[in-house]
Amino acid sequence: MDTELKVLKKIFEEKEKAHTKSISNYLGFSQDYIRFLCQRLVEKDLLMIVARDWYKINQKGKKELRLRNLIEAREKRLRSRLEKLVWAPLRLREFPRAASGRPKFWAGGYGKREANQKLKLGEKIEKIASSLGKLTS
Q: Among 2, 1, 74, 12, which Cα is nearest to 47's?
């Protein structure tokens, strides 16, 4: 893998912002060489300078990593983690039954609080689903 791509990938893995010292420790090159590579990536418009020796990856840099299939696995892991977060609370729990056989909250045994909790859970699911759609585009 090209050294510039390794630098881009390392910055992406560090929450999209990294210091040249952490990159040089990871790759085993001198900090001056990493600074030179980052400046070249800035000229190619793949990185942005945040502060002295701090660089942030921009959309063009992320796109370059996606084109070379270097960050697809991370997005898949993130997607599976989000799916676990969404579906874990949705496991059906047993509600006490009323004389009619329906759960008590349908028969009026539970108040608006439980209904509001269900609505909030639905809103959370919609937010996560929309963020999943943004990941793929």
A: 12
DSSP secondary structure string, 47-59?
A: EEEEETTEEEE-H
pLDDT at 49: 92
* Nearest residue to 131 (alpha-carbon basis) of 93, 87, 75, 91: 75
Among 88, 82, 96, 94, smallest CA distance to 126 is for 82
Closest listed residue to residue 128, CA positions, set 73, 99, 90: 90
Measured between alpha carbons, how far is 64 from 86 in angstroms, rounded to an integer?
A: 30
- Would you state the pLDDT for residue 116? 63
pLDDT (0 to 100) of residue 66: 84
pTM of the model: 0.52
- The per-residue b/e assignment along 5-44, b for 16 or more CB within 10 angstroms, e otherwise, is bbbbbbbbebeeebbbeebbebeebeeeebbebbeebeee
> Which sign, positive or negative, has the C-alpha torsion 46, 50, 54, 57?
negative
pLDDT of residue 102: 62
Asked if 38 contacts 8 with a C-beta cutoff of 8 angstroms, the reply is no
